[in-house]
Design goal:
- This protein is an alpha/beta fold and about 325 residues long.
- The chain has one domain: 3-Layer(aba) Sandwich (Rossmann fold).
- It contains 13 helices and 5 strands.
- It has a 5-stranded parallel β-sheet with strand order 2-3-1-4-5, sandwiched between helices.
- Strand 2, helix 3 and strand 3 form a beta-alpha-beta unit.
């Protein structure tokens, strides 16, 4: 298969004169690394693993998507004050924010602006399995109650037709598995040497070697032989207690939640996220073989492109 070579883009100036940092901020510590995704590929496992490392500082809450927000500005000082207040500057600062791979054209230049020296980490999994997991999450959250295979088939039909769209969507289960397409803007801004790509399948099959490689890239102590690798979070398409989850979407409770101090919300969010994981009924459904074959055919060009970009064989048996 002929694969189009990667083409770099001309990078604009990272900071305009108006947005240039002042003398004090110019020397302020910035992010050392960012886990950019992908969603439903083991980012929670990475968050738990890295947060327990003595050389790393992560915000207490996973998913701090300040670059993904429509209200984004290049005010790194305010981000630092909220999420990294009191963080020792001799530690490696980072975030785990899978939303960043959902809209790379917007986020990649912003990340280059606010953290030009950051090491990027991407963890990927078989895109067919990722699509199924993502759609199950959408069903569990009440965002898309169609039968799983119907939802995937309808999106696949749209992707294969002229109605295909390039905009990001939380429920774009199929499209968000086109990893090569999503990673290319980051490669254009940061280069391949600043992007470390991991695979969930490698983390499950060879955890010590995979974690050791991550530690080397982040330039932190290798604790791979003594650290416990957290088990990848298993998803599901329903909750044990739906009423408990419904409380998170109650408008009255949401108004009250946003009135409490930000520091309290940041402190409480990990507990709330953990409660949601406990409340999820774990299950692993099988996918219709014909639909899986269609998805494999759809992803085949992007998988070939990714293998070419990374210069390695991918650990996915569907190709």
């Amino acid at each position: 298969m002929q694969v189009k070579p990667f083409e770099a883009v001309t990078r604009p100036s990272r900071l305009s004169e108006a947005a240039a940092p002042g003398p004090d901020e110019r020397h302020a510590k910035r992010l050392d690394f960012v886990v950019i995704g992908a969603a439903k590929c083991g980012t929670t496992t990475l968050f738990d693993l890295l947060r327990s490392h003595p050389d790393v500082w992560l915000p207490a809450a996973k998913e701090v998507p300040f670059l993904y927000d429509d209200t984004y500005s290049s005010d790194w000082a305010s981000v630092r004050a909220r999420w990294f207040a009191g963080a020792p500057t001799d530690l490696r600062w980072g975030t785990v924010t899978p939303q960043y791979l959902m809209d790379p054209d917007r986020v990649a230049p912003r990340l280059s602006e606010c953290a030009p020296g950051a090491q990027l980490i991407a963890i990927l999994r078989n895109p067919i399995d990722r699509a199924l997991s993502h759609q199950r999450m959408a069903r569990r959250l009440g965002e898309d109650m169609r039968p799983l295979e119907d939802a995937l088939t309808e999106e696949l039909n749209a992707m294969e037709s002229a109605s295909r769209q390039a905009t990001a969507s939380r429920t774009a289960s199929v499209r968000l598995g086109e990893y090569a397409r999503l990673l290319e803007p980051y490669l254009a801004w940061f280069g391949l040497d600043r992007l470390h790509v991991m695979f969930l399948e490698d983390l499950q099959a060879s955890p010590i070697e995979t974690v050791a490689a991550l530690y080397r890239v982040l330039r932190i102590r290798d604790l791979s032989t003594t650290a416990s690798v957290p088990h990848a979070h298993e998803g599901g398409d329903r909750y044990r207690w739906p009423a408990l989850q419904a409380m998170r979407h109650n408008r009255l409770l949401q108004r009250g939640w946003h009135r409490v101090p930000t520091s309290f919300r940041d402190w409480a969010k990990p507990t709330i996220d953990g409660l949601e994981r406990w409340n999820t009924v774990k299950s692993t459904p099988n996918l219709n073989p014909e639909l899986r074959k269609r998805l494999a055919d759809f992803y085949k060009p992007d998988v070939a492109r990714l293998a070419d970009l990374l210069g390695r064989q991918l650990p996915w048996s569907d190709w």
